[in-house]
Design brief:
Largest sheet: 5 strands, parallel
CATH architecture of the largest domain: 3-Layer(aba) Sandwich
Structural class: alpha/beta
Low-confidence stretches: 256-270
Order of helices and strands: EHHEEEHEHEEHEHEEHHHH
Shape: elongated
CATH topology of the largest domain: Alpha/beta knot
Strand content: 15-25%
Number of domains: 2
Helix content: 25-40%
Radius of gyration: 24 Å
Mean pLDDT: 91
């Protein structure tokens, strides 16, 4: 069973969101273990100090290294094993991706360290963390929101967490491309209609439509993913169709936008 520990100075900020939804159900089913730890409990002064001024001067405060070392040593008293990861959440880290979440879901223990203020003493990264990850090219006030995102992304990949064993495999990024569009009843919402392929009852047509639209979305929004995606010959053929459709639907010399399948103006720039 995967055990996830979050170390933070704001434990309630993390504990409350983890007490609902898929994460809570997975914990109740015994699929994962979840624990949130107050970093201040690992300080040694009466003020429970977790930060200090930076060496060399400069703005802000820096989180002290020693409380983090004590916290992790209490969680992993025998040291970090091959099935453990101690992850520092930081804007300086490597991008957190689906593949990262999948790897974490196969661990025995995942310890997430949340920073605050100007940053964490570099010796936490050097001597304690096994890796450093970031949600993206932006800065949050602290690592708590990032820890919640990582925890949910990981837990939903634990076998049995979603109930439907095939659900996670159909997500965006699971096979290197974005997910296809989804529709539900009614079939017409304010003139916006469900594509005919999904109403046909033809399973092969539905599968082809969904794959083609997943590739179309990836090509339009995240073309970088196609460079490393696992594309079958059928995928390559669908991409050629998409390119041909885009070329034929391009605005003429007089301008104007190409209509979409639903008769609306296309929102995808070409």
């Amino acid at each position: 069973m995967l055990k996830i520990d979050v170390v933070t100075i704001f434990p309630q900020m993390v504990a409350a969101p983890l007490s609902d939804g898929i994460v809570r159900r997975a914990a109740d089913a015994g699929l994962v273990g979840l624990a949130v730890h107050d970093l201040r409990a690992f300080t040694d002064d009466r003020h429970r100090t977790v930060d200090d001024v930076p060496f060399g001067g400069g703005p802000g405060m820096v989180m002290k290294a020693e409380p983090f070392f004590r916290a992790v040593e209490s969680l992993l008293p025998e040291g970090r094993g091959p099935g453990d990861a101690v992850v520092l959440l930081s804007p300086r880290g490597a991008p957190f991706r689906h593949e990262t979440a999948l790897r974490y879901s196969r661990l025995a223990r995942l310890v997430l360290l949340c920073g605050r203020y100007e940053g964490i003493d570099e010796r936490v990264r050097e001597g304690l963390a096994s890796e450093e990850v970031s949600l993206g090219d932006f800065v949050l006030t602290g690592g708590e929101v990032a820890a919640l995102a990582v925890a949910e992304a990981v837990v939903r990949l634990v076998p049995g967490a979603l109930g439907d064993p095939g659900s996670a495999g159909a997500d965006s990024f699971a096979d290197g491309v974005l997910d296809h569009p989804h529709y539900t009843r009614p079939s017409d919402v304010r003139g916006l209609k469900v594509p005919e392929a999904l109403l046909s009852g033809n399973h092969a047509a539905v599968r082809r439509y969904r794959r083609k639209e997943a590739l179309r979305a990836t090509r339009a929004r995240r073309p970088d993913l196609l460079e490393s995606a696992r594309l079958a010959p059928e995928d390559q053929a669908l991409l050629r169709e998409i390119r041909d459709e885009e070329a034929s639907a391009a605005p003429d010399a007089g301008g104007g936008a190409a209509p979409s399948q639903n008769g609306r103006e296309s929102l995808v720039s070409r």
